């Protein structure tokens, strides 16, 4: 086996590291390191540039693997330059010191000639000043350099084939720094860029890179290893170790260990290691453990951030397997074909003939690069979400879209935001839709949110999201999540709920780079659905067409019994409630409509 071609063979045969106890030991890859090496080896065989992004738990060993990969490529191949960038000087130095130790412990016969070895770089090149000797034996002309995230401007003047980015979630200006670094990366079959970091909350640059990689929006391959996938994270469990289920004293510290065991197929040794680590490394703080040793990528970001909603319940909904399933809705899609803007329609349940529906709408400007508009449809009795439209659309056209949805869903009550561009949407909606089916903010007093001084002579249609109502509706949504009152959320809902944070000023809003249009539509809906005032103002029972349908059925029976009409060639469908060509039926249908 050729040492030049196989990193694992080279590393485990020749490289040494300093272990956690300060001992110099031979490098032996753990399972996670082996899997990463196998992945990179397979990608190298394809001859394409390689971009890897790693979301890590503590001390899995990805930094060590990446340094060994860099050293192997640089020390065994000519004209190969590597760059290591970490968030602070000490971290960069620690990574760089691995390469120095690798070099020092190599057999003399395998040590490349070295020209420079200082605190910032290793240059493998003939150190001679004699040009003739250098021409005959130049050495590798390869190098390893380190920088901190605060000082990467100099990287623009060099060209690198390998780049190791460490703890980018904690960089001060990651976007600016990465822009400078990536301009110096040569894009060719030898390119390898590895970004590895622990999480630091939703919405930062690292989260955006990670999220985009999962959705295939960039070239990075996402890798996450949960704590229980690391073979070192287990301990022999003592004979008296008992798994906690619902002990009121233990659950706040360790959680429900039985549920965790069943969810991830954990052994007693893994559970005991987890409990020991919570006690001795995390000061009996379960959230700290989940931040440092996450079980999934969402938990990593969630536990390291300031989520507005209960983190445990968000994880509960995230793990739930009851996401609403998409159904085909060709007739609604056809209706939207000319009025849908640039958006996506998702339908999760069929419309029912006798059901009453609520539509809530968050309104954005309509420009492609700005926030999104979002409307959601809810069954008012089951409170389940039936459909969603999400995208960019002109505010006036959005009014037409709402009219289509409202008409389709049995003349649903429409609660459209009246803020900013919502006035334009509502103006168009009022031209098309039945006014008594458009939510009027003055028609009900939202727990005294709407004061007398705000009352207007003309009805003020739409929901106004202001400082008071926003806090109120978000609090109600948070309470309903806490009580598990909401049947289910879509996967896209869950993502926005998790990135809805409390900022440094104490305001609940979308994390930087994230959106909250779905959260706002949900919050409006679940406030109104639980409001007795709303339900008394727009009563469900008055919306049902049962009595009117009975009138229609009785008239059909009367016409048939008296043989007043012949229905030859006519089709009647009780779902559509339509019989063509008969004025008496038309008048009944007009009443139903």
Name the descriptors.
about 600 residues; alpha/beta; Rossmann fold; Nucleotidyltransferase, domain 5; eight-stranded mixed beta sheet; five-stranded mixed beta sheet; elongated
Summarize the structure.
This protein is an alpha/beta fold.
Describe this structure as you would to a colleague.
The protein has helices at residues 7-14, 31-46, 62-76, 89-105, 131-136, 174-182, 205-214, 251-254, 257-264, 268-280, 286-292, 297-303, 311-319, 330-336, 395-408, 422-432, 467-482, 491-498, 517-529, 532-537, 546-562, 583-592, and strands at residues 16-18, 24-26, 50-55, 81-86, 116-117, 121-124, 142-148, 162-166, 192-197, 221-224, 342-347, 357-362, 373-379, 385-392, 413-416, 500-502, 508-510. 39% of the residues lie in helices and 14% in strands. The strands form 4 sheets. It has an 8-stranded mixed beta sheet with strand order 5-6-7-4-8-9-3-10, sandwiched between helices. Strands 11-14-13-12-15 form a 5-stranded mixed beta sheet. Helix 11 crosses helix 12. It is elongated. The chain folds into 4 domains: 7-225, Rossmann fold (3-Layer(aba) Sandwich); 234-305, no CATH class; 330-541, Nucleotidyltransferase, domain 5 (2-Layer Sandwich); 545-592, no CATH class. The model is unreliable at 446-454, 543-552 and 562-582 (pLDDT under 50). A hairpin with a 5-residue loop joins strand 16 and strand 17. The protein contains 22 helices and 17 strands. With 593 residues, it is an alpha/beta fold.
């Amino acid at each position: 086996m050729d040492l030049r071609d196989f990193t694992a063979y080279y590393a485990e045969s020749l490289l040494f590291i300093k272990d956690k106890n300060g001992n110099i030991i031979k490098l032996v890859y753990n399972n996670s390191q082996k899997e990463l090496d196998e992945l990179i080896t397979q990608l190298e065989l394809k001859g394409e540039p390689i971009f890897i992004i790693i979301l890590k738990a503590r001390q899995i060993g990805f930094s060590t693997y990446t340094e060994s990969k860099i050293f192997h490529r640089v020390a065994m191949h000519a004209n190969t330059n590597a760059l290591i960038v970490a968030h602070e000087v000490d971290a960069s130095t620690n990574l760089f010191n691995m390469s120095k130790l690798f070099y020092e412990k190599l057999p003399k016969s395998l040590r490349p000639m070295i020209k420079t070895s200082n605190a910032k770089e290793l240059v493998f090149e003939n150190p001679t000043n004699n040009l003739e000797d250098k021409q005959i034996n130049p050495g590798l002309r390869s190098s390893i350099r380190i920088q901190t995230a605060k000082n990467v401007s100099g990287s623009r003047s060099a060209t690198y084939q390998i780049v190791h980015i460490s703890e980018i979630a904690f960089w001060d200006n990651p976007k600016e720094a990465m822009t400078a670094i990536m301009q110096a990366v040569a894009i060719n079959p030898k390119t390898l860029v590895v970004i590895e970091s622990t999480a630091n909350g939703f919405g930062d640059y690292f989260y955006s890179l990670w999220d985009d990689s999962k959705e295939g929006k960039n070239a990075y391959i996402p890798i996450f290893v949960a704590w229980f996938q690391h073979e070192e994270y287990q301990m022999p469990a003592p004979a008296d170790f008992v798994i906690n289920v619902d002990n009121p004293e233990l659950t706040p510290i360790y959680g429900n260990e039985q549920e965790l065991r069943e969810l991830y197929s954990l052994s007693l040794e893994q559970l005991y290691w987890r409990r020991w680590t919570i006690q001795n490394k995390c000061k009996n703080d379960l959230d700290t453990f989940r931040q440092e040793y996450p079980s999934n990528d969402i938990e990593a970001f969630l536990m390291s951030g300031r989520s507005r909603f209960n983190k445990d319940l968000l994880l509960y909904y995230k793990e739930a397997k009851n996401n609403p399933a998409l159904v085909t809705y060709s007739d609604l899609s056809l209706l939207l074909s000319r009025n849908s803007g640039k958006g996506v329609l998702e339908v999760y349940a069929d419309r029912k003939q006798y059901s009453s529906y609520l539509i809530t709408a968050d309104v954005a400007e309509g420009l492609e690069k700005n926030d999104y508009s979002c409307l959601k449809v809810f069954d008012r009795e089951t409170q389940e979400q039936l459909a969603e439209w999400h995208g960019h659309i002109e505010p006036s056209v959005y009014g037409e879209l709402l009219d289509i949805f409202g008409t389709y869903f049995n003349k649903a009550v429409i609660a459209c935001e009246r803020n900013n561009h919502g006035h334009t949407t509502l103006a168009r909606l009022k031209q098309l839709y039945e006014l008594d089916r458009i939510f009027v903010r003055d028609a009900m007093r939202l727990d005294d949110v709407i004061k007398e001084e705000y009352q207007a002579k003309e009805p003020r249609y739409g929901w106004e999201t202001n400082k008071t109502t926003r806090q109120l509706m978000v609090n109600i949504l948070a309470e309903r999540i806490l009580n598990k009152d909401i049947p289910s959320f879509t996967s896209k809902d869950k993502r926005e709920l998790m990135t809805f944070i409390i900022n440094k000023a104490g305001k609940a809003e979308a994390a930087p780079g994230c959106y909250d249009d779905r959260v706002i539509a949900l919050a409006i809906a679940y406030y109104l659905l639980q409001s007795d005032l709303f339900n008394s103002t727009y009563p469900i029972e008055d919306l049902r067409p049962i009595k009117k349908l009975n009138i229609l059925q009785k008239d059909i029976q009367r016409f048939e019994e008296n043989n007043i009409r012949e229905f030859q060639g006519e089709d009647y469908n009780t779902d559509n409630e339509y019989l063509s060509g008969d004025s008496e039926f038309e008048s009944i249908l007009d009443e139903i409509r």
